Amino acid sequence: MPVCGMCIKRWYSIGCTRFSRHTTRGVTGQSCTVLVIPDRNFVRGLSDMRIRHCSCEQSLVARAGLPRYRLRAESLQIGVATPKNFSIRLTPMGKNSSIEWTDHTFNPWWGCVKVSDACTHCYAEAWAKRVGQNVWGPGSSRRVFGESHWREPIRWNEDARAEKRRRRVFCASMADVFEPRKELDKERAKLWELIKITPWLDWLLLTKRPGSIGSLAPWTTDWPQNVWLGTTVEDQTWAEKRLPRLLKHAAARRFLSCEPLLGAVDLSRWIGAEREGEFTIDWVIAGGESGAHSRPMLPGWARGLRDQCRRAGIPFHFKQWGHWAPASAAQANRNVSKFWDDVEEKDILMEAKGKKEAGRFLDGVTWDQVPVVA
């Protein structure tokens, strides 16, 4: 059966949100009627799921009490009854994550409190507000999820076991696992148990609160082999504060997320010679901030981290330039600004061009290094 030729060009997200206008055209060129048919594997057990169909040129409203989902345009197929009907399959946003350094993302809950400069333009807060969730700040509640959500990683684990290939799971993109709130202890306990029963998944627990790890994690010296601990290091100030708190833990791997990278970071204190009472840095991820109000990541900062990692034999992953990318004098236009690069000690031209166009090449190379599995 032929696939419907359509002009849906972007992802649409469900979660108490309204779809923008869309047009689809069948193989004969007529406009098609869109019928949304949820895949029951993903929406089973939901208490509030109301989907209605519409003709094209109208907006479609979908309300669902579920985490972020996306429509896969390439899964659109003509229905068996008539060429004017076809189905849209829902796939959970966590599976096959668009984040370059992980395979999946999992959020035990939504919500957090801003604690440092890296949080200023928090994408997770912006997304939560976009879908009507007031879960940011000390006075807001956190959004928790039902059992169907918690079963997703178990399916990922079974897929990984069947394929005999381990998968990485980023936890959490919409929260901080080590946020010290008493009402989250129940969800944390569920997460620890989930980690235990999914040995084919490497859990990347990223936090801006490494000082809370010791009091909230159930492990001390006997960390599971599938737990990687990471902390955000946006500049030297936060490297000095967070790294000693991270590196005292005997997790299988310890990693740094230098994203958004807002300043030069000198890691010489923690790499090279062994330090008593501290474990090694096993991975460094670097990237610039994205979004219209982003702050630029200067080339010297990114190169500095890359070069330190290369000398120390630490895997380095360059995620993205973000909204700003290096520009030449020949490219000068109204979107180009000059910045002082304190590492390279010279003025640098940077162009605001958006994440996609800016790309992720650093000096002509894509850096996708990942640690060896523990």
Characterization of the model:
This protein has helices at 40-43, 123-130, 147-163, 185-196, 213-216, 236-246, 299-312, 355-358; strands at residues 13-14, 17-18, 33-34, 49-51, 54-55, 61-64, 69-71, 77-78, 85-87, 90-92, 104-105, 109-110, 143-144, 167-171, 201-207, 227-232, 253-258, 283-287, 316-320, 324-326, 336-341, 346-352. The strands form six sheets. It has a seven-stranded parallel beta sheet. Strands 5-3-9-8 form a four-stranded mixed beta sheet, with no helix packed on it. Strands 1-7-10 form a three-stranded antiparallel beta sheet, with no helix packed on it. The chain is α/β, with parallel strands linked by helices and 374 residues long. The chain is globular and about 55 Å long.
How would a crystallographer describe the biggest sheet?
Answer: 7 strands, parallel
Topology as a string of helices (H) and strands (E): EEEHEEEEEEEEEHEHEHEHEHEEHEEEEH
Instruction: Determine Rg (CA atoms, Å).
Output: 22 Å
Which descriptor suits the 3D outline?
A: globular
Give the strand order, joined by hyphens, for the main sheet.
11-14-15-16-17-18-19
Structural class: alpha/beta
Compute the number of strand runs. 22
Helix content: 10-25%
User: What's the overall average pLDDT, rounded?
Assistant: 79
Given as residue ranges, the uncertain stretches (5+ residues, pLDDT < 50) are: 1-93
Per DSSP, the total helix count is 8
- What is the terminal separation in angstroms? 46 Å
Beta percentage is 15-25%
